[in-house]
Write a structure and sequence with these properties.
alpha+beta; three-stranded antiparallel sheet; 8 helices
Length: 248
């Protein structure tokens, strides 16, 4: 009888805990209290590793990845699925220029497109075959029925705003003579280059800024008309002046 009582009480306790936890998670889902996110973070494993140094200072761009190194970044945990988080574990090679991309010849027989932007483009969470530039190459090749080959170059740089983007384009992109230069910009990037706007930004969401990013942009970067909420900029390339915008 004593053993039966112990087993029964244990089952009741386990059932009560399960029901309570389920009710709490259901309430968290309705009211967005952040309980699932906190629970996922308690047992989270987060890795950010470079071999040997991750980022280095650069006079033209403020900072960039250490050239010819391997970048390892991972984030996972037993409650990630519960919180809706997607785990990742990526090891990526940094090319000779300091960007996560393959190395490119200065001249190419193919139509060349250069993508410039922040961490959305750098995409350290993804393996190479899952990344935006190679997927764009495959998409164009399939859409043209295997007749059009484009070479897409990735110049993504974490926490880079338009001022750093100008430095990337001037000192790293234009020497490859791309037919198109696309600059990806969102509202936070624009605010990052405004001292007035940064004073009004929450400190937890402010992008990291180097001293070079507070300088005014040269006159060669002029606004382009655009009907979307995305910002656009005009740059001179060896093939002529083009308007770089994600909406194209």
């Amino acid at each position: 009888m004593r053993l039966r009582s112990i087993v029964l009480n244990s089952l009741l306790a386990a059932g009560s805990v399960t029901i309570t936890l389920g009710a709490a998670l259901l309430l968290d889902r309705w009211l967005e209290l952040g309980l699932r996110h906190r629970l996922a973070s308690v047992l989270e494993t987060y890795i950010q590793q470079a071999e040997p140094i991750m980022y280095v200072y650069d006079n033209q761009t403020g900072w960039r990845l250490n050239p010819r190194t391997q970048y390892h970044r991972a984030s996972f945990g037993p409650f990630y699925g519960l919180a809706g988080f997607e785990p990742f574990d990526a090891k990526l090679r940094v090319n000779a220029e300091g960007f996560i991309d393959r190395d490119h010849y200065l001249k190419t027989p193919y139509y060349r497109i250069a993508f410039v932007g922040n961490s959305w483009l750098e995409a350290v969470q993804l393996q190479y075959h899952e990344r935006f530039p190679p997927l764009t190459e495959d998409f164009v090749f399939r859409l043209s029925e295997h007749k059009k080959v484009v070479e897409v170059m990735n110049f993504g740089l974490s926490n880079a705003a338009p001022a750093q983007g100008y430095g990337v384009i001037k000192h790293f992109v234009l020497k490859y003579q791309p037919e198109e230069v696309w600059l990806f910009v969102n509202s936070w990037d624009v605010r990052s280059n405004s001292t007035f706007a940064r004073r009004r930004m929450p400190s937890s969401n402010a992008n990291a800024i180097s001293p070079s990013s507070t300088r005014s942009q040269p006159s060669s970067a002029r606004s382009c008309p655009t009907s979307t909420a995305k910002s656009a900029m005009r740059f001179s390339t060896p093939s002529g002046t083009r308007c770089a915008s994600p909406s194209r």
